[in-house]
């Protein structure tokens, strides 16, 4: 089926299939429906952005974090809805369902495959940019955070009230809470406290029937599913109640860079045996990338060993000297700071002033493709050498692999506790990232990262080769974006992300959204 896009006429007739059944409806009817339900004309102008609106492009682009999906040929939404009240969300669901538009929910817009703001069928975006409230209650050590807030806004909100509480979520401060918590959320506190979703204790969700549900009213099955079972699948999560975790007033971060000439391969080889067994208070990660060599005009590959101890430098140095002397950690590699400053440190930003955490656009946007692996057995030295050497290739000029140690708390949580199953026995997770600036070269770079992924097949987890849902990779397989997707078809990617939890996710989806209203290329399909 072919659709007209871009030059949207207000009364264009479109057709869209909802789980097999084809609906024929008009864009004009959709707008009419939404305007009637919102009713107040000054609110309408702040909530509905059609393609004729002068602010349409800036609203669309404000939360696009992958330039790969903002080219002139990228399909654009018929309208962007930026709700200010829960009733606006309910109305958007009602009108898109009744007038045949697919809904894409966007919080921070960091989806690696752009599925929160791109679709191949007529669609509208529900953009939660106005749902950004963060309410921190230090007495009860909890916070309510709306989905459109970023992790940075949450971190800042906590730190502006207390230096001794934190939240274990992702490293980058511009990612949206809505998408991040829908897929898990691993960061520097992960070895100590597990994932962000391990600390969600309530949520506010609008389901496919427009009902507003809390933990009690949605029931434990659905509450289990939304904590990592994927975004745009079970409903629109408006807000999350999270339990905060203790952090010391001072943490110590460090970076030690080793390149190929400085034994990077051997040290990384050793790191694999140690990092997951270190005390929970110590997180380490290795970032592999191409850098200039000390020989003029030559390149080498650097393994940058970074980490954070929930404690002081005087505790860190003897700990590393004892457990991982090969690293040669010295005091000058270390800096003491507050937990909230460490977020900026790992994000490659100056650690002062911390209010940069409120800047949703603090990081540059380029074209990106990512893939992930979970590794359960240490790689051989030869294997690591081959992996590192791939970074000497031309296409890897702006490539990086971030390798994060697991173990600690992650080893203690059962695989089926929540939808995210990659727990006990994982040594580390690798996120492979390739970036480019000229869209015409996209194929070359994507081809490189696919070759890197093929190379890593013999070292990664097997049957299934596990992958992290938060770094979506459509190479792993997709749903039919129109019509029915069978369990078998979706299992191809679903088992990689969710292992045996996939089946339960499908059962819950079948119960709560049998018509598959909330859908995207890798949302859980109903039976
Ligand atoms: P976005 O708004 O694009 O949404 C992502 C998905 O969730 C889409 O399918 C969307 O429809 C759905 N969705 C969004 N809001 C929803 C809502 N309120 N209700 C229902 N569905 C909703 N991960 C990690 O674990 N640790 C890390 O350190 C990082 N770091 C990182 C850095 C950078 C630069 C990027 C690009 C990504 C990461 N990630 C990460 C991955 C990140 O967690 C993942 O991309 C999240 O889905 C991003 O959430 P956003 O809300 O920003 O995305």
Describe the overall structure.
- By secondary structure, this protein is α+β, with helices and mostly antiparallel strands.
- The protein folds into four domains: 20-127, Uridine Diphospho-n-acetylenolpyruvylglucosamine Reductase, domain 2 (2-Layer Sandwich); 131-248 and 338-363, Uridine Diphospho-n-acetylenolpyruvylglucosamine Reductase, domain 3; 251-337 and 364-456, 3-Layer(aba) Sandwich (Vanillyl-alcohol Oxidase, Chain A, domain 3), CATH 3.40.462; 478-526, no CATH class.
- It is built from 15 helices and 20 strands.
- It has helices at residues 27-38, 41-47, 56-62, 86-98, 151-159, 177-183, 190-193, 215-226, 264-274, 313-323, 339-346, 381-389, 442-455, 487-498, 501-512; strands at 13-18, 21-26, 48-50, 79-81, 102-106, 123-127, 134-137, 142-146, 165-166, 200-206, 212-213, 236-243, 245-246, 251-259, 282-292, 299-309, 334-337, 367-375, 400-405, 428-436.
- The strands form five sheets. Strands 17-14-16-15-19-20-18 form a seven-stranded antiparallel beta sheet. It has a five-stranded antiparallel beta sheet with strand order 7-8-12-10-11.
- A hairpin with a 5-residue loop joins strand 10 (200-206) and strand 11.
- The longest helix has 14 residues, at 442-455.
- The radius of gyration is 23 Å and the shape is globular.
- Residues 1-22 have low confidence and may be disordered.
- The structure holds dihydroflavine-adenine dinucleotide.
- The site of dihydroflavine-adenine dinucleotide has 35 residues, from strand 5, helix 6 and strand 12.
- The site of dihydroflavine-adenine dinucleotide (FDA) has 35 residues, from strand 5, helix 6 and strand 12.
- Residues 1-24 form the signal peptide.
- It is found in: Secreted, Cell wall.
- Its cofactor is FAD.
- This is FAD-binding PCMH-type domain-containing protein.
């Amino acid at each position: 089926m072919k659709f007209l896009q871009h030059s949207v006429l207000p009364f264009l007739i479109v057709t869209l299939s909802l789980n097999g059944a084809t609906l024929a409806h008009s864009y004009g009817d959709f707008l009419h429906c939404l305007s009637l339900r919102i009713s107040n004309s000054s609110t309408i102008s702040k909530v509905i952005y059609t393609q004729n609106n002068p602010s349409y492009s800036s609203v669309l682009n404000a939360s696009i974090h992958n330039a790969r999906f903002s080219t002139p040929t990228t399909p654009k939404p018929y309208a962007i809805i930026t709700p200010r009240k829960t009733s606006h969300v309910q109305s958007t669901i009602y009108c898109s369902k009744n007038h045949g538009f697919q809904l894409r929910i966007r919080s921070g817009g960091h989806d690696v495959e752009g599925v929160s703001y791109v679709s191949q069928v007529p669609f509208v975006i529900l953009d939660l940019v106005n749902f950004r409230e963060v309410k921190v209650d230090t007495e009860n050590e909890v916070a309510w955070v709306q989905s459109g807030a970023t992790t940075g806004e949450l971190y800042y909100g906590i730190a502006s009230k207390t230096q001794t509480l934190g939240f274990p979520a992702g490293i980058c401060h511009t990612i949206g809470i809505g998408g991040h918590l829908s897929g898990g959320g691993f960061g520097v506190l992960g070895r100590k406290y597990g994932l962000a979703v391990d600390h969600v204790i309530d949520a506010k969700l609008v389901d496919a029937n427009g009902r507003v549900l809390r933990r009690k009213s949605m029931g434990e099955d659905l509450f289990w599913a939304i904590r990592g079972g994927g975004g745009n699948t079970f409903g629109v999560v408006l807000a999350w109640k999270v339990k905060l975790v203790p952090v010391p007033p001072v943490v110590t971060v460090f970076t030690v860079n080793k390149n190929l000439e400085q034994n990077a391969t051997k040290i990384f080889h050793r790191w694999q045996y140690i990092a997951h067994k270190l005390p929970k208070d110590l997180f380490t990660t290795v970032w592999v990338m191409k850098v200039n060599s000390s020989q003029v005009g030559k390149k080498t590959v650097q393994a940058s060993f970074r980490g954070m101890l929930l404690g002081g430098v005087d505790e860190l140095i003897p700990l590393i000297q004892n457990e991982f002397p090969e690293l040669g950690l010295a005091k000058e590699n270390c800096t003491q700071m507050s937990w909230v400053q460490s977020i900026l440190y790992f994000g490659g930003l100056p650690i002062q002033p911390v209010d940069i955490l409120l800047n949703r656009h603090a990081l540059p946007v380029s074209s990106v493709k990512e893939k992930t692996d979970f590794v359960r057995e240490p790689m051989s030295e030869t294997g690591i050498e081959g992996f590192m050497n791939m970074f000497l290739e031309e296409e890897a000029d702006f490539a990086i692999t971030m390798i994060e140690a697991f173990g600690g708390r992650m080893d203690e949580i059962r695989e089926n506790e929540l939808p995210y199953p990659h727990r006990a026995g994982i040594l580390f997770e690798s996120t492979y990232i390739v970036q480019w600036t000229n869209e015409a070269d996209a194929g070359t770079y994507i081809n490189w990262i696919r070759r890197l992924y093929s190379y890593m097949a013999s070292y990664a987890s097997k049957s299934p080769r596990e992958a992290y849902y938060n770094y979506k990779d459509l190479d792993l397989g997709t749903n039919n974006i129109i019509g029915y997707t069978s369990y078998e078809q979706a299992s191809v990617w679903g088992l990689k992300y969710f292992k045996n939890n996939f089946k339960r996710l499908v059962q819950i989806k079948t119960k709560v959204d049998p018509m598959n209203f909330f859908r995207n290329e890798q949302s859980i399909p109903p039976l």
